[in-house]
Design goal:
alpha+beta; four-stranded mixed sheet; elongated
Length: about 325
């Protein structure tokens, strides 16, 4: 596409005009690389008026390479005797920053990525999962007794880990260390205070008489193991139970809902939620049903119809967390969505 066609097309998600070389040029090129690629016309005003560019092209190429670490296509075209520089940037397989900040295109605008956008962006670009990323916390933020309690729970499935081993060795064998740093999974599973770093890693539980009338409201923090146990206690305090005698003095508890199914639902909710989303897991208990919601969409390539099939693709959002729950005997098939 030549300059005349680009000028007629106007600014869009993949095209931009800049009258002169300044920081906004680098931000836009970063945004193109981080979105769907694009073309920037240098020497053209916002209104499409041609002013021309008089700078040195070699210096321009070096400056882009120095500031962004990329080598875009740079061409020149004359319009009425004025030099217009066409800078074409393809979508980058890795994140591209300008002065430590990351940008993306939203329509015809270049916007800086917020914390949540940036975290999702890095996950998409790197192919890593959130729970495998290095945590902002350190080993000192983990509770040693919780780790050793887990090892005791996992004895049948992890016979090669000794309860008395060094904590760092245990975490390394579990795959919860990356370059000597604890992962996000390690923090949520074994942290003394995980919400100090990730305030969204909580469960909100409400007892509702109707959609707008709340009878009781609780918020649960702590480790994911703690959240499962505390959520179960709160739910059990709000649902009915009856007793059947099986002979003699023995009695059998019959709950309104099967407790094993409730526990499994809560565990799955915590395993599969999107921890980059600032929302909490929510559980609403009504007179005749329980509603459980976690932040996050279905993985790309999987639909609701797929989930109804006996066999469907499995794409774990947080495989490190899921694996630890599997080792602890709290889920049977951790690879199943």
């Amino acid at each position: 596409m030549n300059v005349s066609d680009l000028l007629k097309k106007g600014k869009s998600e993949t095209s931009e005009f800049k009258r002169e070389l300044n920081d906004s040029v680098y931000k836009t090129l970063s945004a193109f690389a981080n979105t769907h690629g694009g073309i920037l016309l240098l020497g053209v005003g916002d209104d499409g008026k041609v002013y021309g560019f008089s700078g040195d092209l070699d210096s321009l190429a070096r400056s882009i390479r120095h500031n962004l670490g990329i080598n875009p296509s740079i061409k020149v075209e004359d319009i009425d005797g004025k030099k217009i520089v066409i800078i074409e940037v393809p979508q980058s397989p890795v994140p591209v920053s300008f002065r430590g900040r990351y940008y993306r295109r939203v329509g015809a605008q270049t916007v800086e990525m917020g914390w949540e956008d940036l975290r999702r962006f890095f996950l998409q670009k790197s192919g890593a999962t959130w729970d495998s990323l290095p945590s902002p916390a350190t080993l000192e933020d983990l509770d040693e007794e919780t780790i050793r309690k887990f090892v005791r729970m996992a004895r049948n499935r992890l016979p090669y880990i000794n309860e008395n081993e060094d904590v760092e060795s245990i975490l390394d064998k579990l795959g919860l260390l990356e370059d000597g740093k604890i992962t996000n999974a390690a923090l949520l599973l074994f942290g003394k205070e995980p919400q100090k770093y990730y305030i969204q890693a909580k469960v909100g539980i409400g007892r509702f008489k109707d959609p707008v009338t709340i009878i009781d409201d609780k918020e649960i923090g702590g480790t994911l193991f703690t959240q499962v146990e505390e959520a179960m206690k709160i739910i059990m305090s709000h649902i009915g139970v009856r007793y059947e005698f099986e002979g003699g003095l023995r009695r059998k508890e019959i709950w309104d809902y099967p407790l094993d199914a409730l526990r499994e639902a809560i565990i799955n909710t915590l395993i599969h939620r999107d921890y980059t989303d600032p929302s909490n897991v929510q559980i609403k208990i009504f007179d005749d049903f329980i509603w459980i919601w976690n932040p996050g969409k279905l993985p790309e390539g999987i639909s609701l119809e797929d989930l109804k099939k006996e066999m469907h693709p499995s794409k774990l959002r947080n495989p490190k967390i899921a694996q630890v729950f599997y080792y602890a005997g709290l889920v049977e098939r951790w690879a199943v969505l």
